[in-house]
Amino acid sequence: MTLPRPLRFDLLMGLLGFSSGLLLWSFGLYTTGDRLLDQRWAPLIPLAVMAVMEALRRTLPRTALAVGTLAIVADQLTNGNLITILMFTDLVYAAVVYGPPATARRVPYTTGLVTVAVTVGFLVWWQNAIALLVGALTGMISFMPAMTGAVVRNHREAAEAARLRAEQTALLAEMDRAQAVVAERARMARELHDMVANHLSAIAIHSTAALSLDEPATTRQALTVIRENSVAGLSEMRRLIGILRDSSGDTEPAAAPTLAALDALVDQARANARPSGLDLVLEDTRESAAGLPAPVELAAYRIVQESLTNALKHAAPGEVRVVLGREPKALTVEVTSRYGERPGPTAPGSGAGLVGMRERVELLGGAFEAGPVTDHDGRKRWQVRAELPMDVRDEEQA
């Protein structure tokens, strides 16, 4: 097993700590006296060990803290060195900030318990207020660095979570933008086909007639039709170019989506969801797709759209099934996806989508359910189910 290389800054920290401690030792500046090991060289051993652990504070934070704890205990058996104590506080801080999540949770609790135990133990032993001072010093070199590290780590994790949310929001916004571009291109294609193409077809037909027939009256009539269609086509082209340059001049309302466009919606969502390990399946069990009021079609489309968006954001890898069914008096929409943890940082959800779907269904007088269910295989899935009554007027807003 290859040990990770210490970082340059940590190496400098360890070297600086050892040099500073050596300087204090050379002047005979100790933290205390009359200890078990009162030889002059004894404080240098914990100092050297602590300096080495300081160089490993980020690459091996747990190991550095464990060995550093032994070194600080050994330092208490000597005359002591202030730099050894300061480097130990940095090891405690680094273990919380750079260590695994479990270590970051345990170190503050452990150091807190040690501080309390030392204080109570010396109070019972000495029965003197000096024991409180010893407890306070113990807390300053162990518990306070751990709590400082916990605060810093929480801030960093919050900042990272905010960054991930921003990236996910930007990704979803880009997906919405791409869908809007596709929809706009389709609308412009319809405009060109329905308006401009008709004019060009008429021009082609009448120009052919004018060239093939040598009759002045027929030629004149054909040229008149050609001119009218040319002017109309040019006007439509100018309008379309104006729309492309500035959509504010387009006052035509966009057509409401229907279930006929559901295949395209699922295909687009399938392409977006493929990197997340989602497999989208559309199952239409209706015998006939005719006879649905426009508000019902719009509500069903939006429910499927929002459910697929939620699956893209939250569903675990697996199948996402969209089922359309028709009962005697209602259209049923059911979307199921795998329920559970999914890899990889996660967005944060506000629940506004479920509220919006429920409101759509309630406006039509239907029934709506959303939540985890257990299928016949015993697996948990997230299911959205809506029953949309078909006895509504087309004037109603879905």
Can you walk through the features of this model?
There is one protein chain. The chain has helices at residues 8-26, 44-55, 61-76, 82-98, 101-126, 130-212, 216-245, 262-273, 294-314, 352-363, and strands at 278-284, 318-326, 330-338, 367-374, 380-389. The chain has a five-stranded mixed beta sheet, with helices on one face. Mean pLDDT is 80; it is low at 249-254 and 344-348. The chain is 62% helix and 11% strand. The protein is elongated and about 125 Å long. With 398 residues, the protein is an alpha+beta fold. 24% of the residues are buried. The chain is built from ten helices and five strands. It starts with 7 loop residues before the first helix and ends in a 9-residue tail after the last strand. The chain has three domains: 8-164, no CATH class; 170-249; 259-389, Heat Shock Protein 90 (2-Layer Sandwich). A hairpin with a 5-residue loop joins strand 4 and strand 5 (380-389).
Average pLDDT figure: 80
How would a crystallographer describe the biggest sheet?
5 strands, mixed
Which range does the strand content fall in?
5-15%
- Low-pLDDT parts are 249-254, 344-348
